[in-house]
Write a structure and sequence with these properties.
The protein is mainly beta. About 5% of the residues lie in helices and about 50% in strands. The chain has a domain at about 35-150.
Length: about 375
């Protein structure tokens, strides 16, 4: 019993000792700053809890504080008035849509909790940490997208469900609910937000649909708008592909293709099964059932005959007719036979290597003289 009492007294004394020891040492130290950056931060050897970051100005440090990190500016011996938890260099800010981004500068997204802001390489706060996402042309706030500049002014109000930068111009495709329209870089509506589908073709034209797009069954029809919201190709085509300037390859619901000039009409009636661009501008390979010809975009034939097959490589066309192969080459704006159509088998065209062929029991190879733009035929001995 005495031994038990002694053990109880010992434990009690030990607990009291720990309590008095904690009181003497003061409150526990603050928790370390977030570790999400530790692998990316570069420690400064001469200063404890001070770091730099790739591309950051050498007179700006990142220092650890109780609730994250701050910038420390060596020139002024001051700290930033804001605290952040993560920092990430953002290379995508080189973008044509917003003019205040300088392609020669480095930008960094900083965040605290779920809110993001933007700083430059000197640690200057350009955009406050008020946004759930930031990109080269848009920010997200309270679930809506808009545009803010370096003075934290709303250039485009935060009312859109989506904002997508156009690849070929300084415009934005805007979305509200399920409908799309086009804005300029300061938020003016160029095309009303009333289309179920809208996509940029080039700087002047947009494919559109007024019906929800079914990507599985592909039953939609599409048309083309210009930047003034004028319909220049009616909403009647299964596919529309920009060809050049104001010309488009269109495909009808019956899967026939032709060429449509925006605002004018057909350059080539949709009677072909295939229209394929070649290396030469405005020159197309056209297939109608099992027959191939060469056309320009105005529908004029550039090859004298129709062939059973046609493939292009480096401006030369390998063709066949009645089971015999040969080559066509561009000559004075036309495509003419550069070899006889006598080969039973024939390699694809090459500028540098031999193109082997067979003719009945005989064989040989062709070489191409690029100076004269002609083929030379080399026969081998007759097969045994």
């Amino acid at each position: 019993m005495n031994i038990l009492m002694m053990k109880v007294q010992f434990v009690t004394l030990l607990i009291l000792f720990n309590i008095f020891n904690c009181i003497a040492q003061g409150p526990p130290p603050p928790p370390p700053p977030p570790q999400t950056l530790s692998s990316d931060l570069l420690p400064i050897a001469t200063q404890k809890d001070a770091y730099t970051f790739t591309g950051l100005d050498e007179l700006v440090w990142i220092i650890a504080v109780e609730d994250g990190y701050k910038f420390y500016y060596l020139e002024t011996d001051k700290q930033s008035g804001f605290t952040f938890e993560t920092i990430k260099q953002q290379r995508e800010f080189i973008n044509r849509t917003l003019t205040w981004y300088d392609s020669n500068q480095k930008y960094y997204i900083i965040s605290k909790g779920k809110q993001k802001g933007l700083v430059d390489k000197k640690g200057s706060l350009l955009i406050d940490m008020n946004y759930s996402s930031l990109s080269a042309y848009t920010a997200k706030k309270n679930g809506k997208r808009g545009v803010v500049n370096f003075e934290n002014e709303e250039i485009i109000p935060f009312i859109y469900d989506g904002l997508q930068s156009c690849a070929r111009s300084s415009r934005l495709i805007a979305k509200i609910d399920t409908l799309y329209g086009i804005l300029d870089s300061v938020g003016n509506q160029l095309i009303p937000i009333e289309y179920a589908y809208l996509n940029e073709c080039n700087r002047s034209y947009y494919t559109f649909s007024t019906e929800s797009v079914n990507l599985i069954h592909k039953e939609n029809t599409f048309g083309v708008l210009d930047s003034n919201n004028r319909i220049v190709i009616p909403e009647s085509y299964r596919k529309i592909e920009h060809l050049t300037k104001d010309a488009f390859i269109i495909e009808t619901p019956s899967k026939k293709v032709g060429i449509y000039q925006a605002g004018e009409g057909y350059l080539i009636q949709p009677v072909y099964d295939l229209l394929e661009e070649t290396t030469f501008p405005f020159v197309l390979i056209a297939q109608q059932e099992n027959s191939f010809v060469v056309l320009n975009i105005y529908g004029e034939k550039l090859s004298e005959l129709a062939y059973d097959s046609m493939e292009e490589k480096l401006t030369i066309l390998k063709v066949s007719k009645n089971g015999k192969f040969g080559f066509l080459a561009p000559t004075n704006g036309k495509y003419e036979e550069a070899t006889e159509l006598i080969f039973d088998t024939l390699d694809d065209f090459s500028l540098t290597r031999k193109m082997h062929f067979t003719v009945g029991e005989q064989s040989g190879y062709l070489t191409f003289d690029s100076d004269s733009n002609t083929f030379n035929v080399h026969w081998k001995n007759q097969r045994k």
